[in-house]
Amino acid sequence: RTIDDLPQVYRDVMDAWNTCLEEGADFSDMNRAMRERDVPRIREIWARLVEKLDNQTFYGFLCDSDAFKSFRHREIFGQVGFGTGGWDTDFPNSILEILRVVYSEADDHHRGIVGGSSQLPLRLWEREPAKITHWPLGTSLSSLHGGEPRGAVTRLRRTAGDRITVTDAAGDIRTYRAAVFTAQSWLLLSKIDCSDSLFPIDHWTAMERTHYMESSKLFVPVDRPFWLDEAVDDRGEPTGRDTMSMTLTDRMTRGTYLLDNGPDRPAVICLSYTWCDDSLKWLPLSANERMEVMLKSLGEIYPKVDIRGHVIGSPVTVSWENEPYFMGAFKANLPGHYRYQRRLFTHFMQDRLPADKRGIFLAGDDISWTAGWAEGAVQTALNAVWGVMTHFGGATDATNPGPGDVYDEIAPVELPED
Length: 418
Known about the structure:
Layout: H1 8-25, H2 27-35, H3 39-53, H4 58-63, H5 71-80, H6 95-103, H7 119-126, H8 141-144, E1 153-159, E2 163-168, E3 173-176, E4 179-181, E5 193-194, H9 201-209, E6 212-213, E7 215-222, E8 230-232, E9 238-242, E10 247-248, E11 255-259, E12 267-275, H10 276-280, H11 287-301, E13 316-319, E14 330-331, H12 338-345, E15 360-362, H13 374-391, H14 407-410
Parallel strand pairs: 1-5, 4-15
Antiparallel strand pairs: 1-2, 2-3, 6-14, 7-12, 7-13, 8-9, 10-11, 11-12
């Protein structure tokens, strides 16, 4: 419940991580600059670190620190990790990806969303803006689309007049002056038939090089939040502790999470939440096979708890790398990928592109610097909207500049390519 409850070695690992961040990545300075919205200072610190660390893995960053000279400490740190699971599955990734998370404290102070994170797109879909210019009051995205989105895109073509022609799964063909693509970029390489002329070759290369994290989850419904029952020790005496709690382990399950809806109401256990190699271990197994392995592992951790006796329904599982419209959970840059990410993120600045490569805009969390986070998706959406507006000859109010209007002051640092 508190840091003091942990064995000393875990506190040593925490201290090593804090020291590593401070000495190797100016953590306090950056965190302070972000809190104070000091953009020049943020850019100064970050530009130096990008140049220094773009070729460094997360694991290499740890190894370079005297604070983490102990392999045992690095191993424990990898198992414990942050927020939703262990850090070790991220060890091959660029340290820049990790710093973006910890600087902004996205790995801390988590809050649940009642109804799930799907509330964000659903409410955007249903929202009726009070201030609206081109449509009557009461208009929503849902009403503009007859209550349902159009079918999946199956083909994208650049046609005469630099138009974008879209074919959907129903076979309908429509042509637009501009289009915004928000799905995972790999779909442009596989599920969607695209003409090469949509993007410059260096942007296609950046999409090809995008690295996605594998991830698997398995959920099972239970009769009630039995984990809140008081645990007993070997003598049958109450311990003052819950029977079970959120569990991070080096076993196959890696992360187990407990989700309740109140006393004596049906609840859910996420028996396992895994990443990368740990996710691939589950891929050949069916949902029931996965559950059997998970219950065996958890039974060894909690030998007195009859988890199976509380299960009231079939397990539900997902491996994002096996989903045809995802092909991975989210982007995670490898060392040396900063330049690729910058190309995709800055694609909305189309005055830098040849005239015959404009009109289609990339957005979504994997185009952003913070893949897997809604903030990154929203930021790139705003960039794309500014790009479309500019493409159509529009402009922002001078008192409220858009991202492209102040691009030269806030653009991501550019690394040389020669």
